[in-house]
């Protein structure tokens, strides 16, 4: 594994503290129209966690993407300390650019307790070592993909269920993807949760397209994350393989809903994710 892109991701999530409860984040130097949603969500969770004692761990977050982020300027994150209790802490974070809110997040933190235990079992799937990485999977399309193909990627993704040409046909409404940070991460559980938050936005909304077929470049669709919720169930490392089992129960009226269960390699259900997004036809 190469850790250069991962080091950049860790730096991206290391926000600058500029005032009490106010943090500043930057975006990668990329020629993109808007900031990647997972970046804003990950940075907002970092901002919230910076105001919470280390004995608390994030157990849930709920977020709305309000406006496209501008990658050319920094993002300010303002944290509101809603509640500090003995077992739970709650934070609200607003991300601001050009004087307007582009994203807001509510996060709840919890001190771990003993209690009931159960989970859905992990599915039997092809292990990640037997699946193609991104570069191999998309190599036949490298020329037409251009810079999108060659840019560094901090998250290694291995798709269990499909290859790029499959996207032209109607597929089952689910996909399973192995993912991990493409390099070692520091031993900071907050960072691992933030990296998983970043990665959780990479393939989830894309799941809503699988039942509909069409060209995989989707040049006639506008897609954007609208809201995003996560629940963190058990401890994990984001630089170990995680299986992201995603499905899409519904799409209607230009909106698509997708869900995800995240499992560790040893079968522990570590997180659950739900997202609704815009999937608007442009022609």
Written description of the protein model:
With 283 residues, the protein is α+β, with helices and mostly antiparallel strands. It has a single domain, classed as Acyl-CoA thioesterase, double hotdog domain (Porin), CATH 2.40.160. Helices cover 17% and strands 38% of the residues. The chain contains 6 helices and 12 strands. It has a 12-stranded antiparallel sheet. A hairpin with a 4-residue loop joins strand 11 and strand 12. It starts with a helix and ends with a strand. The mean pLDDT is 92.
Mean pLDDT: 92
Order of SSEs:
HEEHEEEEHHHEEHEEEE
Number of helices: 6
CATH class: Mainly Beta
The structure class reads alpha+beta
**What's the total count of β strands?**
12
In summary, what is this structure?
By secondary structure, the protein is α+β, with helices and mostly antiparallel strands. The chain is 17% helix and 38% strand.
Throw out a few tags for this protein.
6 helices; alpha+beta; globular; 12 strands; twelve-stranded antiparallel sheet; 283 residues; 17% helix; Porin
Summarize the SSE layout with pairings.
Elements: H1 4-12, E1 16-19, E2 22-25, H2 37-49, E3 57-65, E4 75-84, E5 88-97, E6 100-110, H3 134-138, H4 142-145, H5 147-150, E7 155-159, E8 174-181, H6 189-200, E9 221-232, E10 242-252, E11 255-264, E12 269-281
Antiparallel strand pairs: 1-2, 2-4, 3-6, 3-9, 4-5, 5-6, 7-8, 8-10, 9-12, 10-11, 11-12
Helix pairs in contact: 2-6
């Amino acid at each position: 594994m190469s850790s250069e892109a991962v080091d950049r991701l860790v730096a991206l999530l290391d926000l600058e503290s500029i005032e009490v409860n106010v943090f500043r984040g930057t975006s990668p130097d990329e020629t993109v129209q808007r900031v990647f949603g997972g970046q804003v969500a990950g940075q907002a969770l970092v901002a919230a966690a910076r105001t919470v004692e280390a004995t608390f761990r994030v157990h849930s977050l709920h977020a709305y993407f309000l406006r496209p982020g501008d990658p050319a300027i920094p993002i300010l994150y303002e944290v509101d300390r809603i509640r500090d209790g003995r077992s739970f802490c709650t934070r609200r974070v607003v991300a601001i650019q050009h004087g307007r809110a582009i994203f807001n997040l509510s996060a709840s933190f919890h001190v771990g307790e003993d209690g009931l235990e159960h989970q859905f079992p992990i599915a039997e799937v092809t292990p990640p070592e037997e699946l193609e990485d991104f570069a191999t999977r998309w190599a036949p399309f490298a020329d037409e993909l251009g810079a999108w193909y060659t840019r560094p990627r901090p998250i290694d993704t291995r798709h269990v269920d499909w290859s790029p040409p499959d996207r032209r046909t109607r597929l089952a409404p689910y996909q399973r993807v192995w993912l991990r940070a493409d390099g070692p991460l520091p031993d900071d559980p907050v960072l691992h949760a933030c990296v998983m938050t970043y990665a959780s936005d990479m393939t989830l909304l894309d799941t809503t397209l699988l039942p509909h077929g069409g060209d995989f470049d989707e040049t006639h669709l506008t897609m954007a994350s609208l809201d995003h919720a996560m629940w963190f169930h058990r401890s994990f490392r984001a630089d170990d393989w995680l299986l992201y089992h995603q499905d899409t129960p519904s799409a209607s009226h230009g909106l698509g809903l997708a869900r995800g269960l995240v499992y560790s390699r040893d079968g522990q259900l570590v997180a659950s994710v739900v997202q609704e997004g815009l999937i608007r036809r442009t022609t």
